[in-house]
Amino acid sequence: MRLKLLILGIFCCLFQLNAQEYFPKNDGVTNPNTNFTVFKNARIHVDPQTVIESGMFSIQNGKIKAVGKNINVPENSIVIDLEGKEVYPSFIDLYSDFGIEKLKRAEGGSSPQYDASREGFYWNDHIRPDIDAISNFNFDDKEAEKLQKAGFGVVNTHVPDGIIRGSGMLVALTPDAMEGDRILNERSGQYLSFDKSVLSRQSYPTSIMGAMALLRQTYMDAQWYANGNADNKDLALEALNKNKNLLQIFATDNLLDEFRADKVGDEFGIQYVILGSGNEYQRLDKVKSSGATYIVPLKFPDAYDVENPYMAEYISLAEMKQWNQAPANLKMLAEKAIPFTLTTHSLDAEKDFKTNLLKAIEYGLSKEDALAALTTVPAKTIGKSAELGAIKTGAWANFIITSGDYFEKETTLYENWVQGKKKVLSNMDVTNITGEYDLNLKGESYELSITGEPSSPKAEVKTDDKKLGTKISFSDNWMNLLISSPDSTKTEFIRLVAHVPDLSENISGKAFMPDGSETSFTATKKAKSDTAEKKDKEEEEKKDKEKPEILPVTFPNSAYGFKQLPKQENVLFKNATVWTSEDDGVLENTDVLVKNGMISKVGKDLNAGGAKVIDATGKHLTAGIIDEHSHLAASAINEAGQNSSAEVQMEDVIDPSDMGIYRDLAGGVTTIQLLHGSANPIGGRSAILKLKWGETPENMIFEQAPPFIKFALGENVKQANWGGGVRFPQTRMGVEQVFTDYFSRAKTYEKKKNNGDKDFRKDLEMETLVEIMNGDRFVSSHSYIQSEINMLMKVAEKFGFNINTFTHILEGYKVADIMKEHGVGASTFSDWWAYKYEVNDAIPYNASIMNEVGITVAINSDDGEMSRRLNQEAAKSIKYGGMSEEDAWKMVTINPAKLLHVDDLVGSIKTGKQADLVLWNNHPLSIYAIPEKTMIEGVVYFDIEKDKAMREEIKKERNELISDMLKAKNSGVKTQPVKKKEEQKVHCNLLEEVH
Amino acid sequence: MKFKNITSLIIILFGIKSGVAQQTPAPAQTEAITIVGATAHLGNGEVMENSLIILEDGKISRIQPVTSTKMQYPGKIIQAKGKHVYPGIIAPNSTLGLVEIDAVKPTDDEDEIGEILPNIRSLIAYNAESKIVESMRPNGVLLGQIVPRGGLISGTSSVVQFDAWNWEDAVVKEDDALHINWPNSYRRGRWWAGEERGLKANDDYTSDIQKLSDFFASSKAYLSGSDYTNLAYDAMRPVFEGKKKVFVHVDGEKEILDAIQFKKEQNINHFVIVGGYHALGAARQLKENNIPVLVNRPHSLPNQDDEDYDYPYKLAKLLDDAGVMVSLESSGQMERMNTRNLPFYAGTVAALGMDKEHALELITLNAAKILGIDENYGSLEAGKSATLFISEGDALDMRTNILSHAFIDGRELSLETHQTELWKRYSNKYKNQDNSDKKE
Question: Which of A204, A351, A724, A861 meets the CB 3.0–4.6 Å disulfide criterion with A866?
Answer without folding.
Answer: A861
